[in-house]
Amino acid sequence: MLRIASLGSGSKGNSTLIDDGETRILIDLGFGLKEAKRRLSRLSIDPNDIDAILVTHEHADHVHGVGAFARKYGTAVYLTPGTYVLKKLGQLPALHKINCHLPFSINGYNIVPVAVPHDAKEPCQYVVNSGTYTVGILTDLGHITPHVATSYQQCDALLLECNHDLEMLSVGPYPYPLKQ
After folding, report:
1. Most buried of 2, 22, 95, 154, CB within 10 angstroms?
2. How far, in Å, CA of 93 to CA of 98, rounded?
3. Which residues are 110's β-sheet partners?
4. Residue 48: what are its φ and ψ, rounded to 5°?
5. Which of 45, 22, 26, 49 is nearest to 132 (CA)?
6. 8 three-class SS
7. Cα(72)–Cα(47) distance, rounded to whole angstroms?
8. CB-based burial of residue 66 (10 Å sphere; 0-12 exposed, 13-18 middle, 19+ buried)?
9. Confidence class of residue 57 from pLDDT cuts 50, 70 and 90?
């Protein structure tokens, strides 16, 4: 059995748990340490049982808690070289810089990073295969490209974040550079 749970999605923080009962990974961790622990406890997950954090990109709502969590619990962090920003994440106990065009494995998971269009340095999303199920995660996607469409065709489940609204952005209180 494979469990997928959103710990939260939005400008105040993003994180998704994938758990096959043996290996638990988080995709992003945009919440502070205390809030991350609280959200994991609602799912009966001990933070010590998180095997890895896969980071999609360097925006604060996706990485805010990554550094503190990884240091406190010795959690491995996987991200692209462009996503690693020392000032935001600090030194990490187990840093794995990945190529967003090459698959890799974590315990029983086969993971395919997918390069995506987004206003970040080297963003990627992930397709995770547990051997039985294939789950796609798509958050902060600029637009669907042929590469993205092909990469997610074989998914049994897709977690898709849809919180971008052009009208809200244009008339909202956001700074001009963000609106651009």
Report:
1. 2
2. 16
3. 105, 129
4. -65, -20
5. 22
6. strand
7. 9
8. buried
9. very high
Cβ-Cβ contacts under 8 Å for 179 (sequence gap 6 or more): 169, 170
Q: Under 8 Å CB-to-CB from 21, ≥6 apart: which residues?
A: 1, 3
List residues bridging with 158 in a β-sheet.
136
What does the alpha-carbon distance between residue 44 and residue 41 come to, in Å, rounded to a whole number?
Answer: 5
Average pLDDT value over all residues in the chain:
92
pLDDT of the residue at 157: 96
Q: Amino acid identity of 131?
A: G
As given in the structure block, the two tokens for residue 169 are 């952005």
Residue-wise pLDDT for 14-27, tens only, equals: 999 999 999 999 99
Retrieve residue 139's tokens: 């958050």
**Whether 46 contacts 40, CB under 8 Å:** yes
What sign has the CA pseudo-torsion 171, 179, 56, 51?
Answer: negative
- Tokens 């039985």, residue? 132
Please tell me the total number of residues recorded for the chain in this structure.
180
Q: Of the given ranges (40-49, 62-71, 138-147), which has the lowest mean pLDDT? A: 138-147
